[in-house]
Amino acid sequence: MKSRELLIFDVNETLLDLKPVQESVGSVLEGRRELVPLWFTTMLHYSLVTTATGKYQDFVEIGVAALIMTAIKYDIILSKEEALAAIKPILNLSPHTDVIPALYTLKEAGFRMVTLTNSSKIGVATQIKYAGLTDFFEQLLSVEEIGIYKPHTRVYEWAAGKLNAAPGNCTMVAAHSWDVAGAHRAGMKTAFIARPGQHLFPAFPTPGMVVPDFSKLADKLLEL
Amino acid sequence: MKSRELLIFDVNETLLDLKPVQESVGSVLEGRRELVPLWFTTMLHYSLVTTATGKYQDFVEIGVAALIMTAIKYDIILSKEEALAAIKPILNLSPHTDVIPALYTLKEAGFRMVTLTNSSKIGVATQIKYAGLTDFFEQLLSVEEIGIYKPHTRVYEWAAGKLNAAPGNCTMVAAHSWDVAGAHRAGMKTAFIARPGQHLFPAFPTPGMVVPDFSKLADKLLEL
């Protein structure tokens, strides 16, 4: 049975360690590292604003605009070029140290594995290649293909369709509460990776699995 | 002609001064006022998450959950009751000082005026009454009535329908870039009030009017 199960992984923060981009963004915000979560949340908010208003815009473009807006709020003037340069390291991230051993184990056990990200098609291809994860995944799915951001329910339905899988046979794995919430609403199973600084949204249902890292994720998936 | 024009006002931050709630929220975040924008943006993000996943939840409930999640991120433990108590002052806000004189002028000039807010029906009724603004508005519209948060395009289309107005005869007035962006996409005219700390999202089209306060808004509307 396990071999028919499909694991869908979020990319940023879930597989890849965002520390380098948090550092470069903090640095152009005049070293105010405490503003980095505000930038990231503003980017997520505005990505959904484009979905709610029916006009897709590129994730990096949204990230750049969110960074400039965050900076202005604190009287920091940033050019588009400076903002883009600060975000660019997102293309060259390493996987969290627990990721590769767990992906090996899961691949060995016969799970089908794909990624599903808000990053663009070229963005995720670059990221996964740089991180050395290419061989683990049969597809790298990007919301760019349908022009709707996660966690809109249709994104997960579309992803399941692309994989010829019923949503109920898919497990969405993410370090973001909103991401697993969207997958759950689309009928998928869900696993939340409680990376440091990532927390569940208390007003949403608890995901099927809540684990601290990929090692525990693999253990739990193999138990099932 | 002017007398047929409809002005639709956002409530929180646009008409009403959020300072008391920023203070109470900052206070339960152990005095870390710099975390208040992260709380507010998280609330906005998760309100759209509920819309994107097709399950409406009350705005205050989202605000409470966002506050608890923001607190946990910084190792601050808050009960639901403490979080709710910190947000409650949102019901008892004063209008910004520029609001009442401008609303008088606009009412005199024959504009029809309503509010449109992410707050609940009972929430906005309480807010507008407390602020002493009841007589200015012919309706207090809440997204609760359709179960979709701003800036989803359908909210503005629904509001225009409720007012028997074409979107093109409505001007959405808001201190939030995402709010005017949604109204614009629905075919409304837009005016952005550049309240301190509020800035335009650089990746979106510039609103029809950008003014520092309601006094300038009234001047511009009367010039047209």
Explain this structure:
Two copies of one chain form a homodimer. By secondary structure, the first copy, chain A, is of the alpha/beta class. Chain A has two domains: 6-17 and 93-223, 3-Layer(aba) Sandwich (Rossmann fold); 19-90, DNA polymerase, domain 1 (Orthogonal Bundle), CATH 1.10.150. Chain A is 44% helix and 12% strand. The first copy, chain A, has nine helices and six strands. In chain A, strands 3-2-1-4-5-6 form a six-stranded parallel sheet, with helices on both faces. In chain A, α1 runs antiparallel to α4. The interface between A and B is large, with 43 and 43 residues.
Short description:
The structure is a homodimer of 224-residue chains. Chain A is of the alpha/beta class and 224 residues long.
Q: What spatial order of strands do you see in the largest sheet of chain A?
A: 3-2-1-4-5-6
Number of helices of chain A: 9
Shape of chain A: globular
Largest protein interface?
Answer: A-B, 43 and 43 residues
Biggest pleated-sheet summary of chain A: 6 strands, parallel
Radius of gyration of chain A: 17 Å
Poorly predicted sequence stretches spanning 5 or more consecutive residues of chain A? none
The CATH architecture designation of the largest domain in chain A is: 3-Layer(aba) Sandwich
Overall pLDDT score of chain A? 96
SSE order of chain A in H/E notation? Answer: EHHHHHEHEHEHEEH
Secondary-structure-based class of chain A equals: alpha/beta
- What gap, in angstroms, lies between the N and C termini of chain A? 10 Å
Q: Strand tally of chain A, please? A: 6
- Percent strand of chain A equals 5-15%
